[in-house]
Amino acid sequence: MFNRHFSVKKRGFIADAMLGRLARWMRFLGYDVQYHRDIDDRALVRLARSEGRILLTRDRELTKRFTVEHLLIESEDVKEQIKEVVTLFPKETASRRCMHCNIPLEDIKKEMVQGLVPEYVYLHHRRFQRCSSCGRIYWEGSHTHNIWKILMDLKV
Length: 156
Fold this sequence. Notes:
alpha/beta, 17% strand, 3-stranded antiparallel β-sheet, Rossmann fold, 5-stranded mixed β-sheet
């Protein structure tokens, strides 16, 4: 059973320091998840409130000390954590976000990435995406396929 206290209509999240891996996985799936590794609890809660985000945490004491909309993540396993969030907040669209900046990725023409990605990648891939904030370029490589396989196995 999930320990939760949130409005189902909210879709933005902020993950505490213990859930960095979950934050990256959720961004891959297109969820808006802020993550700050070195932030104290008070500042984390203040940020969650000011931005209207649901706090993802494993820290039971934090949820007792502060009144904030939250989802208390039960599992220590990141795959089970993904299931906990996705079960309650199914994603409507398949857009992806930058794994580093949490900014939605933009489609970019193949010609724009020539010289910016390895030649093999340029020759063997058609679709590329870029983060407008940090400039990182993404493509559907074997790593991406492995991630999707894991997610399919989880049935999320």
